[in-house]
Amino acid sequence: MLQQTAASALRLMRYPLARLSPAEPCQHMENKIHDKEPSISDTADNSACSEIQEYLETRQQRRRMLPRAAFVGAGAGIVALLFRAALTGAGALRSEFLSWAHSIPIWGWVFPVLFTLTGTMVAVIITRRYAPEASGSGIPHLEAVVRHFRELKWKRVLPVKFFGGIIAIGSGLALGREGPTVQMGGAVGDAFSRWLKVSERERLTLILAGAGAGLAAAFNAPFSGVIFVLEELRGDFQPIVFGSALVAAIVADVVVRIGSGQFPIFSVPNYPTPPLASLPVFALLGVVAGLFGVIFNRSLLAVVEGYRRLPERFVLPLVALTGGMVGLVGWFSPMMLGSGDLLVEAALKGDVLLSAIPLFLVGRFLLTMASYGTGAPGGIFAPLLVLGALMGLAIGQIAHGLLPEVVLSAGTFAVVGMAACFTSIVRAPLTGIMLIIEMTGSYSLMLPLLMSCFCAYAIAELLKELPVYEALLERDLERVGAALALKKPVVVEFVVEPGSPFASRPIRSLGLPAGCIIVRCADGKREWVPTANTRLEAHMRITAMVAPEASDALEKLRQGCQVSSDSRQKTG
């Protein structure tokens, strides 16, 4: 094997590297297709050829993409900074309005009800009329764009998400700015890519870079933005995507820090490092967070599905009722409204009484479900962090009362609870850990974070629960289908999940339409050009080329490579 690989490399050295362009990769090598799997010698030739081709493509792409990613990061950072400033102003206006309303003895409660009701109605109507894809978080829509299931029309998504998000969150809905900032960052990447007239692959890379820059700018967390792109949006590691996302995230973070300061998003007291004896308690927190994440996801999906099943004439009245209810809650407790940053700050400092935590926890949970169900622009990042902090603080206070010599401070559990809750709901543990560290500066909590997030992830996986963004995307695609009309051929990638319809089946039996060809298979050890007799196995990554006349093949590939939510629940 080694001798054959060396011989292949020597043969390739006869050809100058300058002649091997990415547009004509390795044309000097024979490209014979047989009705059998590639031999060892063929694999060696293809491996050596692939390495040189990848090197040349990466080097040329890096020269083009990294400067462009810097401009995307600057644009996403400016948009995020303006969005944050507008929401801060809207929150201050809401607080002053509530203070004025409390000065009216009997009918003061009517004004916050009308205020939030009006804001919710305006935001939902604008979104439904001009850019339905801007509703909710926007992250599932970005994932659909990256997988070629949807289009990203930045000219309507960007303004609707920006102004709709300000109106919805500013009026008091229990939603966060982070999801909208991610989608707006992706829209900025799409705008730059269209202005520069780059290729489709480079356009998707800039969209991912903009999304990572948006998350970095929203949380002052550049590394979290990069990891989120690789772990959640992209799902695998590609050097050019990593480099572009890193450059964009750093530039966006610099822009935001220049405009808003270099302090962490949340101020955390200097808690002592938890002893090793407290790790079982952090593991218990992870288990509880895992169970809570499953409840959160299923409740959110049920609310979204309930809104979709409503007759059209009942949707806006229910939206108005939801807005009025949120405003009424704000009359009694202004801390419950908006993204909940003040509530998180209080939880991280341990200033929330144990007896009050259930009220805040249940109240914020219900407000989050109702607010997201309306379809107004707003994310669930911040709301789930609020819930995680409250849940962690409750467990920390109980454990501190029972084991004061082991659990030194209950506030540390609020910090770890945010990461564990994020992990169980989003199923992105690396992003959750890095996000909380960058947001709070609590590097000493690395080991408790790892312990809790691992347990939360394991519980959610054992219960066969889909990550929230994947579940929202699947519901959307099942409702309207992957009906994107392709204008030109596209290249898509899928991973064959264990138990999916395509697992353990030869390509000839998949029933793919004409114009859809599987051109590459990879199993982690090698990659090859498949034939009609190639059998797809679990965990295999396949690359398919889809022509415009075979647009329906995208949905067939998705359904064939993935396990449906119903099948997942049955096996669970």
Provide structural commentary.
The chain has 572 residues and is mostly helical. It has 3 domains: 65-260, Clc chloride channel (Orthogonal Bundle), CATH 1.10.3080; 276-471, Clc chloride channel, CATH 1.10.3080; 485-571, Regulator of K+ conductance, C-terminal domain (Alpha-Beta Plaits, 2-Layer Sandwich). It is 65% helix and 4% strand. The chain contains 20 helices and 6 strands. The protein has helices at residues 2-13, 40-102, 110-130, 139-146, 154-171, 178-196, 200-219, 222-234, 239-260, 279-309, 312-332, 341-348, 357-373, 381-402, 411-426, 429-440, 446-462, 468-480, 553-561, 565-571, and strands at residues 490-495, 505-506, 516-522, 527-528, 535-536, 541-546. The strands form 2 sheets. The protein has a 4-stranded antiparallel beta sheet with strand order 1-6-3-4. The chain has a two-stranded antiparallel ribbon with strand order 2-5. The radius of gyration is 25 Å and the shape is globular. Residues 1-38 have low confidence and may be disordered.
